Amino acid sequence: MIPHLKKPVNDTFIFELIIPSLPGFGYSDGSNKPKCQTPHVAHILKNLMKRLGHEKFYVHGSDWGGIVANNMATLFPKNVLGFHSNFCISLRYISIVKLILGSLYPRIIVSYEFESKLYPLRSLLRFYFAESGYLHIQGTKPDTIGISLENSPEGLLAFMLEKLSVGTNKNNVHVDNAGLDKFDKTLLMDIIMFYYWFPKSATTSGRFYAENLNVDAFRYGLHK
């Protein structure tokens, strides 16, 4: 998205892009306080924008960034002019109930053109069960997996390529080379080396999962 946003629009204006890493990811230090959850990061990034001289701004996010951007739009509506995400998700209990009810009659939850993305529910759950092992270990034992990945380039490469493959297209589990032949290998190595290997961020980024995937976070409705 970055090259497109950098191009002038009708020669009248251009976006100024602020692209931070979340705490614990890339070269951003991990939090030195426990329970650093997405609403806290939303507050940090809002303060960052104010320090840079921006009282009002647009936000975009994906994955954890999508949840943080959602929190920013919810908590600071006077500052956020617009919110865009490719990671629209709700983990509230009522949302889960609605998802289950939709398995009886999908059209009450989703339009026909998107029905296959959610239903049949057994296929969706089977995929999540098979592909969410990383989520469980990072959400419960982040230091164990983090230290392992920070000390083994081969282990980090295997871990990241597997997630980049299935995370970009779930059908890659059925194709030769896991669909990795479609990627620019230099770009893949840049992502892995500069975002995880050089800064040694596997542990701190894993801890962010543990802080957010727990009973307290769901009890207080932090993921909406």
Automatic annotation (TrEMBL):
The molecular function GO annotations come to: epoxide hydrolase activity
Sorted keywords for this record are:
Hydrolase
SUPFAM superfamilies registered for this protein in UniProt = alpha/beta-Hydrolases (SSF53474)
The keyword Magnesium is annotated on this UniProt entry = no
Q: Where is the AB hydrolase-1 domain?
A: 2-84
**Swiss-Prot/TrEMBL GO biological process terms:** epoxide metabolic process
Protein family: Belongs to the peptidase S33 family.
Q: What is this protein called?
A: AB hydrolase-1 domain-containing protein
